[in-house]
C-alpha cells in the first residue's frame, strides 16, 4: 500500500473533517501565540501576516500528510500552491476582521483573528478536500496490487 498516494483507510468525510479541525485548531493556536508575541513589536496587520505565514506552512504540511493521507511526493509542489491559495481565504477574513476590531479597541484583535480563521477554515476544508480528492484519488484495498496512474 505504500506505493499508493492515498489509502482507503479513513475515507470518511466526518473523520477527515474532524482531523482537519484538530490540525487547524492547533495551527490556530500557533497563529494566535505568534500573533500575541509579534504584536508587541509590530502593527496588528504585520503580526497577523507573519504569524499566519509561519503557522500556515506548518499546518499545510500536516494537513497533506495526516488529514488527507498523502505521503507520495507526487504533485507536492502543486498541492502546496493549492493549499496556500486556500489559506489566503483565511488570511483575508482575518485581516478584514482585525481591521474592524481596530475601531472597537485592541482587546478585540484576538477574538476577531480566531473568528476570521474559523470562517477561512471552513472555506479551506471544502477547497482542499475537493483538490485532494481529485489530485490524489483513494484506492480500494483490493486495488493495492495494481498501480493507478
UniProtKB/TrEMBL annotation:
InterPro entries attached to this UniProt entry: GtrA_CellWall_Glycosyl, GtrA_DPMS_TM
Highest taxon, organism lineage: Bacteria
Localisation per UniProt entry: Membrane
Segments crossing the lipid bilayer: 39-59, 80-101, 107-126
GO CC, alphabetical: plasma membrane
Membrane topology: Multi-pass membrane protein
Coiled-coil stretches: none
Alphabetical keyword list: Membrane, Transmembrane, Transmembrane helix
GO BP field: polysaccharide biosynthetic process
Keyword Transmembrane found: yes
Keyword Transferase: no
Domain GtrA/DPMS transmembrane: 19-131
Family designation: Belongs to the GtrA family.
Protein name per the record: Putative flippase GtrA
Amino acid at each position: 500500500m505504500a506505493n499508493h498516494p492515498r489509502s482507503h483507510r479513513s475515507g470518511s468525510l466526518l473523520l477527515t473533517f474532524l482531523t482537519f479541525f484538530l490540525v487547524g485548531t492547533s495551527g490556530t493556536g500557533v497563529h494566535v501565540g505568534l500573533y500575541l508575541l509579534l504584536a508587541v513589536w509590530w502593527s496588528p496587520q504585520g503580526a497577523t501576516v507573519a504569524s499566519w505565514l509561519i503557522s500556515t506552512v506548518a499546518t499545510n504540511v500536516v494537513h497533506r500528510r495526516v488529514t488527507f493521507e498523502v505521503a507520495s511526493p507526487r504533485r507536492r509542489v502543486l498541492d502546496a500552491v493549492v493549499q496556500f491559495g486556500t489559506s489566503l481565504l483565511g488570511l483575508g477574513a482575518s485581516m478584514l476582521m482585525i481591521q474592524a476590531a481596530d475601531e472597537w479597541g485592541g482587546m478585540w484583535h484576538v477574538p476577531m483573528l480566531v473568528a476570521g480563521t474559523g470562517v477561512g477554515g471552513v472555506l479551506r476544508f471544502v477547497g482542499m478536500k475537493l483538490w485532494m480528492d481529485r489530485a490524489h484519488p483513494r484506492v480500494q484495498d483490493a486495488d493495492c496490487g495494481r498501480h493507478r496512474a
